[in-house]
Structures are given as structure tokens and as C-alpha cells.
Amino acid sequence: MRTTVGIIGAGPAGLLLARLLHRAGIDSVVLESRDRAYVERRQRAGILEQGTVDVLRAAGAGERMDREGLRHDGIELRFDRRRHRVDFPALTGGKSVMVYAQTEVCKDLIALQFDEGGPLLFETEALAVEGAETEHPRVRFRHGGGDGAYGGDGAYGRDGAEDVLECDYVVGCDGFRGVARGAVPAGLGRTFERTYPFAWLGVLADVAPSHDELVYARHDRGFALLSMRSPSVSRLYLQVPAGTDAGSWSDEEIWAELERRLETADDWTLRRGPLTQKSVTPMRSHVHEPMRHGRLFLAGDAAHIVPPTGAKGLNLAVGDVVTLARALAHRTRTGSDELLDAYSATCLRRVWQAERFSYDMTALLHRAPDATPFDDRLQLARLDRIAGSRAAGTDLAEAYTGFPIG
Ligand code: APR
Ligand code: PHB
Fold first, then answer.
1. 278 occurs within a structural domain
2. So what's the pLDDT on residue 152?
3. Contacts of 378 (CB under 8 A, 6+ apart)
């Protein structure tokens, strides 16, 4: 097999990159180790920045998002039983966010790829990236029996057979545990990371959200988040100790703890309903520099991880692949490597701003196991400042609604 751009991973990064390259007339092949149902069902992110919304619309992938997505003009911060609304348009000159789950973004991009794009091979695991330092990098992979765009009937090989994808460029969109980052020689890259002593227990509930916007709550018992997937499906999270087993929490215990942490001084109440999904997400900050080695590029979670508090993961991935697609199109049009050579530095400026915001939002709202009464008062003072200062509120609103791409 041969293609111009070999893409490892069919999450938001890989799927959007394939779409943007197709629109630029550049062929690619996407290799995805999981099956289509798993990718379309995997509960991850839910908030699209204005910039992400604009990119999806421009790529012809925004039609269902515009029909079914929920535009949100603010979030509520809840602390000390108080409620403070951060008004995005008022603080950012008109920006907002869209509530539209990454599962739906992936479904839309997979459908477009199957209809119009190049090969998207599910159940096809990349085993290694070779020759990244050469002009002909390659991906060694193992065929699966999945329902790939052209791989389902075995057109590209038999179940389990090993094969090689010859490329001009390889892009690792294979997430935190993928293989692409491992192709960067240890001495040529640097990793910056921080782990947290807590995680998020997330649930899906068949009940209308109890507030019309997201609610981020700081409580002495720990953080809680009220989010949503639709007018009839709620998405809720609780801070739990790192390593918590989701099965160790009963539905009743989850609802009772959410009610405690989301408590207010007024008569607001939390509506309950059947929980349809329960999982624990670990929290980490991680950046791999540089995001490139020869003709291998890293994008999305393959290059960086943020704690989910700032809803930045998917939106950072979008910024990376927009920057890379623009650089590859420039190379195809002009023969110049100028934008490709600037890819890593261009992305990392935005990545580190998102890392800073995600870290600050996490520190602002979560209660560390070793928190002291002094730490508690500092958190409340920071929240009070955001509630009472246009400058402090603007910093949060500008970061939450998104940093410029490129
Ligand atoms: N071969 C093929 N595919 C692989 C391999 C491999 N060796 N290793 C991982 N993958 C696939 C995974 O199965 C997954 O579908 O790569 C994909 C990576 O997707 P994500 O983890 O979603 O990462 P990314 O596309 O960068 O998305 C970034 O979007 O999913 C949200 O919030 C989430 O922060 C995340 C953001
Ligand atoms: C979600 O709806 O999954 C979600 C929303 C906001 C966050 C994180 C996750 O900060």
C-alpha cells in the first residue's frame, strides 16, 4: 500500500486531518486499531470551542452539529453554595462554545470519509513507524477484518496479515498510548508531565440536565461537574481518588454525592434518572516536545494530554491538525517546507496556553487530598476574584472559549 500521508488513529485528530487533506486534494490512509462501533461509542469530550465549530463547518462536517449541537453562552461556577455565571459573549466580544460530543464529531467525520474520502481501515493496528528520518517513512501494520472503507472485504489483505504502508509523511494521531511517539528516538524528544492524586468518575444519565449550562462546582468534599449531551441526557462527573474503580460507587451514592457537592443556598435541585454509563478517567498533564521527528508528525493526544477540567483535549487536537494540513498543502503547492518546519513551535505555543489553563482550572476547583484550610481559603478567594473582577473573568472566558489556531 502507498499513500501521501499515513494517519495512525481515527479519533477526532486523525479523522479531521484526513478530511482536511482530502479537501486540499492530498490523499491519505487512516489506520485504526479499534472497530467502528467502539470509536463511535467511546465517551470522551463534549465541548467545541468557537474555532473548532468554524473548522468543522468550513470542512463540510458541521451540518448535524448545527442542527443538534447546543450553543452555550456561559458556564456557572458554584462555590460556598454561591452561583456565579461567566458570561462568554460579554467578556470575549461575542464568543461562545458548542455542546456536541466528540462521539458525534467522529460519527460525522467517519460518514464523510466513507462517502468521499480515502481508505479508513478499522481493526487495523499500526505496529511500528519506520524510516521517519528518511523521505519514505513507512507504517508496519496488521490487517483486521473490520468494516473499513475499503478494507472490510479484505481488499487490502487478510485478517491478521502483516503489511506495510509506504508514505511521504506519517502522522501519529494515535493518542496517549499509541506507537507513533515511540518512533522518536529517546534522546531527541523531551516529555513534560504532571500526574494528579485524583480522577473523574463520569456518568451518563437519562434525565434532562438540571441546569441549562454547564456547572463547575468547588466543594470541600471535592469537585463536581454538571454537563450534558442533549436536552434529555445529562453527563455528570465527580472528583474521586486516583485509581478508583467505577464499580465501587452505587448509583445512589453517586447521586447523593453530586447533590452534596452541587448544593446552593437557593432552591435549585438536581434531577435524577437512570445511569446508563459509568467510568473513571485518570487525570494527567503531558507534553512531548518536539511534535515532529523527520517526516513523522504527532497531533492530538499523541503529543499532549490535558486534565479534562478545561475541556481542551479535542480542541487542541483540532488546532494541531488544522496547522498540519495547512503546512502539507503549502508544501504540495509551493515545494516549501517552511510551514512544516514551523509546525511544532506553532502548535506548542497554543498547547502550553491550554496546559496552563487546564492546570489552573483543575487547581481552582479540585480539593487535593493534602489540602489545608489555608488552601481552601485561597481557592475561595480566587473564585471570589473571578466573580467580582471583569479582568479575572475575562481571562477564564477567553481561555475557555479558545485560543486562536496557528
Ligand atoms: N494503531 C491504530 N490505531 C491506534 C493505535 C495503533 N497502534 N493506537 C491507538 N490507536 C487509535 C485509538 O484506538 C484511538 O481511536 O488512535 C485513536 C486516538 O484517538 P484519541 O485518543 O481520541 O486521540 P485524539 O484523536 O488525539 O483526540 C484528542 O479528543 O477523544 C477526544 O478528549 C479526547 O483528548 C482527546 C481528544
Ligand atoms: C463533558 O461534557 O464531557 C465535559 C464538559 C466540560 C469539561 C469536561 C468534560 O470541562
1. no
2. 40
3. none
- What's the alpha-carbon Rg for the chain, to the nearest Å? 22
Domain range for 126 is 5-64+102-191+285-356
**What one-character DSSP code corresponds to residue 403?**
P
CA distance 50 to 405: 11
SS3 call for 223: coil
Cβ 47 vs Cβ 98: under 8 Å = yes
Cell 438536581 sits on residue: 270
Across 19-35, average pLDDT: 97
Query: Measured in angstroms, how far is the CA atom of residue 391 from the centroid of ligand 1?
Result: 36
CB 32 within 8 A of CB 14: yes
Ligand 2, atom 1: closest residue by C-alpha: 46
| Count of structural domains within the chain | 1
In a domain, 26, yes or no: yes
The lowest-confidence range among 53-67, 77-91, 135-149, 199-213 is: 135-149
Instruction: Give the CATH number of the domain where residue 314 resides.
Output: 3.50.50.60
- Pocket residues for ligand 2 (CB within 6 Å)? 45-47, 214, 227, 235, 308-309, 311
CB 14 within 8 A of CB 37: no
Which tens digit of pLDDT belongs to each residue from 312-366?
A: 999 999 999 999 999 999 999 999 999 999 999 999 999 999 999 999 999 999 9
Residue 160 reports pLDDT greater than 90: no
- Spell out where 110-189 has E strands: 120-121, 125-130, 138-142, 162-166, 169-172
Of 179-193, 233-247, 364-378, minimum mean pLDDT range: 179-193
Q: Which positions ≥6 away from 392 have C-beta within 8 Å? A: 385, 386
CA of 198 to the centre of ligand 2 (A): 16
| Centre of ligand 2 from the C-alpha of residue 267, in Å | 25
d(CA 177, CA 171): 15
Atom index in ligand 2 nearest the CA of residue 311 equals 10
Cβ 355 under 6 angstroms from ligand 1: no
